[in-house]
């Protein structure tokens, strides 16, 4: 009862971070995917910190206000931890935000993935495909466009936009439950979920098939590798099976940029640079990951994915993907393919 009361008070912002011990800032309302993940992390991390870890939800448009609040007002508190997800990574590239990953230290990030499905036997080379989109789906739509359209001259964004408008109908504003029901009723042609949600909601739908995954970042070799939970499903390989060559061109480079910024930090924990509790938190995280009971609970929710704890190495790889061309092409694609109000941020090139 005491832990429940502490959690409720912290979620409402009534308690200070000092009173509440460690606080995870979650940029979503309770019940959403990252919020559920954060609850399990808080429960298990507290066992190895020997201090309570509570949740404070700060939701808002595109899950940006909570991260901005952490950056501007909360990060100087040594017991405040930011829980960031993939959409925050894409927004860092393409939206006006206050937060900056290079001002923080990484405690740990699950090297995660997204699963996409289609109706069994659906022919990528024909028909108009209806897709229920949304924030965080930016890399998924680009990959779908390349699979539907195949090689397009030089692979420019303009060439793919022309084909996209002919082959795809992107529909914003559809809730998660509506997307699932719409796919089941064949109102939508593409399913898109986290690995755990895919297994929960889509695996047993009749006449459904896993289409592709994005793979995960191989930190040692600085490249994408196959998802160990879904072998043989990586986008690049599926593209080659369908079109006889690997994807190249400007849209593919923009896709690589947003894909890695989303998935490599899709479920991640950050503290302010210089936080004196950084090593203590990393040690507790390592113990949590190694603990069979905690590990099993996390894997059941989010899949069996490796953790990244080398923040400088991870950010160096992500930074290397930000070129002026790829960034501008990602902005153009998001604006014109999805209708998202994206902005080019030259400061990211510095």
Could you describe the 3D structure shown?
This protein has 350 residues and is α/β, with parallel strands linked by helices. The protein folds into two domains: 2-112 and 265-317, D-Maltodextrin-Binding Protein, domain 2; 115-261 and 322-349, no CATH class. Helices cover 45% and strands 17% of the residues. The protein has 14 helices and 13 strands. The chain has helices at 2-11, 33-49, 65-74, 86-94, 138-149, 157-167, 176-184, 195-201, 235-243, 250-263, 278-290, 292-302, 311-320, 324-338, and strands spanning 22-26, 53-57, 80-85, 104-110, 115-119, 129-132, 168-171, 190-193, 208-213, 216-218, 223-225, 267-272, 307-308. The chain has a six-stranded mixed β-sheet, sandwiched between helices. The protein has a three-stranded antiparallel β-sheet with strand order 8-5-9. It has a two-stranded parallel sheet with strand order 6-7. A hairpin with a 4-residue loop joins strand 10 (216-218) and strand 11. Helix 4 (86-94) crosses helix 10. The longest helix is centred in the first third of the chain and has 17 residues, at 33-49. The radius of gyration is 20 Å and the shape is globular.
